[in-house]
Specification:
Elements (H helix, E strand, L loop, with lengths): L6 E6 L43 E9 L4 E7 L4 E11 L10 E6 L2 E6 L2 E3 L17 E9 L7 E11 L16 E5 L2 E5 L4 E3 L6 E3 L11 E5 L11 E6 L4 E4 L5 E4 L5 E2 L9 E4 L18 E2 L8 E4 L4 E5 L4 E4 L1 H4 L6 E4 L11 E10 L20 E5 L28 E6 L13 E8 L1 H8 L1 H4 L6 E4 L14 E5 L7 E10 L6 E5 L4 H8 L10
């Protein structure tokens, strides 16, 4: 018996590993259309760097023998298939490839039989099933069968990695993408029609769902279209808790679920509305009966903005659900304030709403060390208090409006407004119930005449005078709001002044003129740098 000789050569364009199985070849099968072989290996699992994957190479096998099996593992990059063909094939002729043949397999798929003597013969494309390989390592097996155990045959097999067009529909396979597919070298990308979104599997599409709108404070919504349906083209309408809140920034409140997956308003886009407290509209508007010195108690709801300061026995006014306006002299050097809102009887504070201060902010031109300020200097006597948490609005709690920067909101002489508080009455005792009166604004020249020469110099343009003989705010009323009816809106009130100081109870009272501090108030409440009026 002759000595058997086996030789195998592997040439690759990139770093690879290869596996195949061979047995003795025979005659080339004419039914295979000149023996064209293409192996498509679909790669789904991840591989290492693409420079370590096979892009092309060649297997050269000589002197293979009967019943010898050899295999190669060929690694290709993600998104590529393996295409291979024989450049040279040397085998004995065999009728119908029954006696002498080479049989090739990829994974568990049989590629075909090959036999006879052919050179540079390409093989057929395999069926679509051959493209279903789930591994990036394609196992190529070539098995030989020959009656001649002493045969010396050889072949040269060239392979290359080629891009898979995953977007091309294949027989007996569902499409890769639900809607649209874009193929690129090494992979593909699925896209959806307008109004649909790509799911987590990156293949299937689902109609857009805007989801349940995020919760808004003091604001609800109702379904305009189908109940509890938040899909594309659904419509909802936001509504504030009536009557103590008003919608801001939401247009008409109607929002539609658009193709971008967001609730959109035709006027303001995706910006959702906010509900802010209605200001200056008491549930029970006050009516003038008597003066505060000897006057009558206020009914609950007459002055829903009034805040009682238990710590300093002062007053203040809600400007929003988070801010209180008062005089700086009431909170000077005070940081831990206990305040109450929503009631009218100091002996029943358990029925009130407790308010706690997070930050006390006197006006920067007032918040100087007392040694740097004359004792009688109450200029810039204004402060803001930021609450630790928002307070809910209702019939007994709601804010007062700020004036507009307009001449009609100037508190000129002769205008009449309300002042409320727990200050001293004509009996010179602190009132246990909230009192109020109606007082007129007095010209500054008249106020100076009453004040006397010693106090006239303390009056500035940042102040206003109000009151009449026997009708005035008094000790304990400090920080409370002096309110006027809005000149442009009926039954709406704005804060014109803050009780600051006075000459004596029952004469004229001096108030901080709020309209001069609008910029500082709004800037502070917005978190900006506060600016005060010119001195």
């Amino acid at each position: 018996m002759r000595k058997r000789d086996f030789r195998c050569f592997l040439f690759a364009g990139q770093e690879i590993s290869v596996s195949a199985t061979i047995q003795n070849p025979g005659h080339l099968d004419n039914n295979l259309l000149l023996a064209l072989l293409v192996l498509w290996g679909l790669i789904a699992s991840a591989v290492t760097e693409s420079t370590h994957a096979a892009l092309f190479g060649e297997i050269y096998l000589t002197n293979y023998h009967h019943r010898k099996t050899h295999s190669w593992d060929i690694t290709v990059p993600r998104g590529f298939a393996l295409k291979l063909h024989f450049r040279h094939f040397d085998s004995l002729a065999s009728s119908a490839c029954l006696q002498q043949y080479v049989e090739a397999f990829a994974e568990r798929q049989r590629l075909g039989k090959f036999c006879g003597n052919r050179t540079s013969t390409r093989m057929h494309h395999p069926s679509s099933k051959l493209t279903a390989s789930g591994s990036h390592v394609v196992k190529l097996r070539v098995r030989c069968h020959s009656l001649d155990e002493e045969s010396r045959r050889k072949f040269s097999l060239f392979y290359e990695a080629v891009d898979i067009d995953e977007c091309v529909p294949r027989l007996e396979m569902e499409t890769v993408c639900d809607h649209f597919c874009h193929n690129y070298i090494g992979g593909y990308q699925c896209y959806c029609r307008k109004g649909y979104s790509l799911q987590s599997n990156k293949r299937t599409c689902k109609v857009k769902d805007c989801g349940i709108p995020e919760g808004l404070e003091n604001c609800g919504y109702e379904y305009v279209t189908a109940q509890n349906v938040t899909l594309l083209a659904s419509v909802i309408k936001f509504k504030c808790d009536q009557r103590y809140y008003v919608m801001v920034g939401g247009g008409d409140g109607l929002y539609t679920c658009e193709a971008n997956g967001k609730w959109m308003n035709s006027k303001v886009g995706e910006t959702l509305p906010s509900c802010e407290p209605v200001c200056g509209k008491p549930a029970e508007p006050p009516s003038f009966r008597q003066r505060i010195l000897g006057g009558i108690p206020a009914e609950e709801g007459n002055f829903p903005w009034h805040v009682y300061f238990e710590t300093t026995v002062c007053g203040g006014a809600l400007l929003s659900d988070r801010w209180v306006l008062t005089s700086a002299s009431c909170v000077e050097r005070q940081r831990a304030l206990r305040m109450f809102a929503g009631g009218s009887d100091r002996n029943a504070l358990g029925r009130w709403r407790l308010l706690e201060a997070e930050e006390v902010l006197p006006h920067p031109l007032y918040a100087q060390p007392p040694s740097h300020r004359p004792p009688a200097d109450f200029d810039n006597d204004i402060a803001l208090i930021k609450l630790k948490r928002k307070v809910g609005m209702g019939p007994t709690i709601s804010p007062i409006c700020l004036p507009a920067k307009h001449p009609k909101y100037q508190a000129g002489a002769g205008k009449v407004g309300y002042v409320s508080g727990f200050g001293r009455t004509e009996r010179f005792a602190q009132s246990d119930v909230l009192m109020y009166t109606l007082i007129p604004v007095v010209g500054m020249s008249e106020c100076r005449n009453v004040s006397g020469p010693g106090r006239a110099a303390s009056l500035t343009e940042n102040m206003l005078c109000a009151g009449s003989t026997g009708v005035d705010a008094c000790t304990g009323d400090g920080g409370g709001a002096f309110v006027l009816e809005d000149p442009l809106g009926s039954n709406t009130y704005y804060v014109a002044g803050i009780v600051s100081w006075g000459f004596s109870c029952g004469t004229y009272g001096v108030y901080t003129n709020v309209i001069n501090y609008l910029e500082w108030i709004k800037s502070t409440m917005a978190g900006g740098i506060a600016a005060g009026p010119a001195k």
